[in-house]
Amino acid sequence: MISPDPKIIDLLNESKDEETPVSLEYFPPRTEDGVKNLKERMERMKNNLKPLFTDITWGAGGSTADLSMELALSMHQTGHVANMHLTCTNMEKDGDPVAGVKDALQQCLDGGIRNIVALRGDPPAGEDEWTAAEGGFTCALDLVKFIRKEFGDTFGIAVAGYPEGHPNAITELKDGEEANLSESELARCSHFDGKTYVCKDADFKTEMVYLKEKVDAGADNVQFTITDVIMTQMFFDIEVYKKFVIECKAYGINCPIIPGLMCINAYPGFKKMTNFCKTRVPKSLEDKMDSMKEDSAAVKAFGVEFGAEICQQLMDFGADVLHFYTLNLEKVVYGITDALKITTNLVENSNEKDAKSMIAVGSAWARVGDKVKSIYGEGIVKEIRGSSVAVIEMRSWELAGGQRPTAYLQKGAYQKVEGLSVLKSKVPQALMSAEMTIPNHHQWVNT
């Protein structure tokens, strides 16, 4: 019989009187070499850092379902406490909108995994909102309830929290609106390309009410516990996280709130990532990053310095664990833990020669720039219209003058072959810089 993992909440309770532990998060790489290299890295980092638990993400649209499961089971078998992300997007099986989710949970149960991050998942490209199949899940809240209903208290459940508000709740301000922002809105707002973005107080309240529902969902039956922990979307302003924790307590949310720490590895990735998610970047951090944008080594060194500073403040604030979005890399993480004296001289022995193999699989949904195939041959997606019709430049044929025919195909009439665009899905699953792919944390744009 396979020995099951302990629940994360139990590990956190046992470690309260000890030094702040770390946890790690990885995403499924696209290639076989990437998977092999990742397994080797996970083993090294497990031995060097002794993480409290280890996350593996679940690709948008179910794109990495099999590989995520394989990696999660491998993690359990090699001594990690596996924390598997699970979305309910595109998980239909034989026409049943919940069968794929139930099968995944059963595989976890049979394989000894006892910790799940319950997420909804991304909507298909070209759609503003994800529409559930009839009888299927509509949000992460439904997934939490389903897990408790079908599996009782077997799994420890984590849900996502958004210190700045969910990306879908962040709006662009009109001219003159910024002057009327409240103090709390000013503390959450971000600035990109001369525009200001913020989750307004009314929307933030809606977010908090929903988070409270997710946390309490597991306690509908008094014999079950509430949702065990909240794991946050990335942030670069420590005050935003602190205010979020205080807000949670004001709403009666008392479970541990684990801070999600996105490591700064490269300037292009940092800029794309923060711009895409409209993440608040303090002016001092923005200026510092801009000043060294041409010096990749300096950026990596600063990533260590900044990460250590944030982590020390989090430990002083009482964070239960430091959760690193590793980007499937190790040098910056080691640098931070060395600086915090959690480890010694790890950064000197770090090995990132395989960095180019750490490219995420990306979303199952085709995006602009992706290669797709249909009964008419292969082509490149040029546009996704609101009706989910893809405008595809066909590559199989060539007309007079070198022109390519254009096909207008409904979703379901084409299939993604590979992703060619820079942004494949919501950050954490395939936001690429010259040096890395940044996964969707947390995805974390899944509600």
Task: Walk me through what this model shows.
The chain has 447 residues and is α/β, with parallel strands linked by helices. It is built from twelve helices and 19 strands. Helix 4 links the parallel strand 3 and strand 4. The radius of gyration is 21 Å and the shape is globular.
Summarize the structure.
The chain is built from 12 helices and 19 strands.
Features:
447 residues, disordered C terminus, 19 strands, nine-stranded parallel beta sheet, single chain, alpha/beta, five-stranded antiparallel beta sheet
Radius of gyration: 21 Å
What is the percent of helical residues? 25-40%
Structural class determined from secondary elements: alpha/beta
The tally of beta strands, per DSSP, is: 19
Instruction: Describe the oligomeric state of these chains in a short phrase.
Output: single chain
Reported for the largest beta sheet, the result is:
9 strands, parallel
Number of helices: 12
Topology, pairings included?
Blueprint: H1 8-14, E1 22-26, H2 32-49, E2 54-56, H3 65-77, E3 82-87, H4 99-111, E4 115-119, H5 140-151, E5 156-161, E6 171-172, H6 183-188, E7 190-192, E8 195-198, H7 201-216, E9 229-232, H8 238-250, E10 257-258, E11 260-262, H9 267-277, H10 283-291, H11 296-317, E12 322-325, H12 331-339, E13 371-374, E14 377-384, E15 390-394, E16 406-409, E17 415-418, E18 431-432, E19 437-438
Parallel strand pairs: 1-2, 1-12, 2-3, 3-4, 4-5, 5-9, 9-10, 11-12
Antiparallel strand pairs: 6-8, 7-8, 13-14, 13-17, 14-15, 15-16, 18-19
